[in-house]
Design brief:
The structure holds 2 protein chains of 2 kinds.
Chain A: H1 2-18, H2 40-47, H3 55-58, H4 82-90, H5 112-146, E1 159-161, H6 165-194, H7 196-233, H8 241-248, H9 266-290, H10 298-309, H11 319-347, H12 357-360, E2 363-365, H13 366-372, H14 374-389
Antiparallel strand pairs in A: 1-2
Chain B: H1 2-24, H2 29-33
The chains are: A mainly alpha, B mainly alpha.
Chain lengths: 390, 41
């Protein structure tokens, strides 16, 4: 629940930051001249796309208790006028009877779609794409400035088992599915803007359909990989005092000294918890999107935030709004994860000599292991000595 | 590298089986949004 709460808080802050219109104060308007109805100021603010306090309309829905007698002229509408009923439809305040099943089918008008669409096509693509480009550029610069991190004194020539086959399987199940999800997610999000002009509508249609199928279905492999890696590695990733020492030394990335570390150093622990927390969050929002309208979670989350922080986030969300929040949150979390994982891929491949072997064949050079995970090597050797002597 | 490739294959196998299993449990879009009497399949 805490991660969900934290996630929702970050989402709200990010949303307010990205969409300043949502953060505007709405002025109190004197509507006595119009008998409580719309004023010229309302119209002008709407034309300027400024926020308007709609409560003068959304709360003005008539009162059935004021029903006229059935014999009276207005009996069929009870105590409500045509305008009252249309406002109820406009603000989704009626409970209509529909023939087809489904929670969303009773919603006749829901206008959050345009806000969602603008956010998705605007800031999400712009800032998300910039973050991906930025991290790639940063790593290229880092590579040319720092160069590849080599094994000091060269490899020892002997190896030590770093990860067992089941650990590597869990890692690659997670990694392979994440890369597929990332690529297909970007095609779904950005394809309309960037691919259609290049490959045309027909080719994009095939690509988008295939991407959607793969994205929806390989998500299960991602969730399985997430559970596997969490179970196998959580005990090794509990933060301790050693991590602070490692972080103060910058992990030895900018110097030639190598701070002590156990099986996972502080940098790897950060990646681990980033993947676990964000992976859990992106899975939840993904499940909400995978089963439309079946798993609403934002109204409840906002309710918890309101009770803790005293905010007034909306808790009465239409099914469509739940999906819109889930979609935007899914995209934001995925972008943060992609940025972190691109950096992880860099340091695990071209960025450091000998690092890929850990997940390649599971055997790492002993000298590499001593330089980057000295305490873990000592622990393994101690166990081997005990095993050999007994 | 064998482990890596087998994990990738496993991911694709899971992806292929997922819709079959979901349909089996009545989690297809058709099942969720229409009753049997009006379904075309």
């Amino acid at each position: 629940m805490k991660s969900k709460l934290l996630g929702a808080a970050v989402f709200v802050l990010a949303t307010l930051m990205l969409n300043p219109v949502w953060a505007q104060e709405t002025p109190t308007v004197d509507r006595t001249a119009t008998g409580g109805a719309q004023t010229l100021e309302d119209i002008l603010r709407r034309q300027e796309q400024l926020k308007i306090d709609e409560s003068f309309r959304s709360e003005n829905l008539g009162n059935p208790a004021n029903a006229a007698p059935i014999s009276g002229q207005l009996g069929t509408l009870g105590g409500r006028s045509d305008a009252d009923i249309w406002r109820s439809i406009r603000y989704n305040r009626i409970d209509p009877t529909v023939q087809s099943p489904g929670p969303a089918n009773t919603v006749m008008i829901q206008d959050g779609g345009i806000t969602w669409y603008k956010l998705r096509e605007g800031p999400v693509i712009t800032y998300g794409g910039s973050a991906l480009s930025g991290i790639i550029l940063l790593l290229v610069v880092f590579y040319f400035v720092r160069g590849r991190i080599m094994i000091d004194g060269g490899p020892a020539g002997t190896t030590i088992e770093r990860f067992k086959a089941i650990e590597r399987f869990g890692h690659w199940l997670l990694a392979g599915s994440f890369i597929a999800l990332g690529i297909t997610g970007l095609i779904t999000l950005m394809g309309r803007s960037f691919l259609i002009p290049v490959i045309g509508l027909d080719a994009f249609s095939t690509l988008a359909t295939g991407s959607k199928w793969l994205h929806n279905n390989i998500a299960w492999a991602f969730m399985l990989g997430l559970v596997m890696t969490f179970v196998m590695w959580v005990a090794h990733n509990i933060p301790d005092k050693l991590d602070w020492q490692w972080l103060k030394a910058g992990g030895g990335i900018f110097t030639n000294n190598h701070p002590s570390a156990k099986k996972f150093n502080a940098g790897q622990k950060i990646v681990f918890w980033t993947v676990m927390v964000l992976g859990f969050s992106v899975s939840l929002s993904g499940l909400s999107l995978l089963f439309p309208f079946q798993l609403p979670m934002f109204a409840d989350t906002f309710g918890v935030i309101n009770s803790v922080l005293g905010t007034s986030l909306p808790t009465d969300l239409a099914p469509h709004e739940e999906m819109q929040y889930a979609n935007i949150w899914h995209s934001i979390v995925a972008f943060v994860m992609m940025v972190a994982i691109i950096a992880h891929i860099y340091i695990g491949s071209v960025g450091m000599e000998g690092a890929f072997d850990a997940m390649g064949n599971g055997q790492v050079d002993l000298e590499w292991a001593r330089q980057h995970h000295d305490l873990w090597v000592a622990e393994v050797e101690s166990k081997q000595d005990k095993g050999g002597s007994s | 590298m064998k482990v890596m490739i087998s994990a990738f294959v496993a991911a694709l196998v899971i992806a292929s089986l997922a819709p079959v299993v979901l349909n089996q449990f009545g989690w297809s879009s058709a099942d969720q949004t229409s009753s049997e009497s009006v379904r075309l399949d």
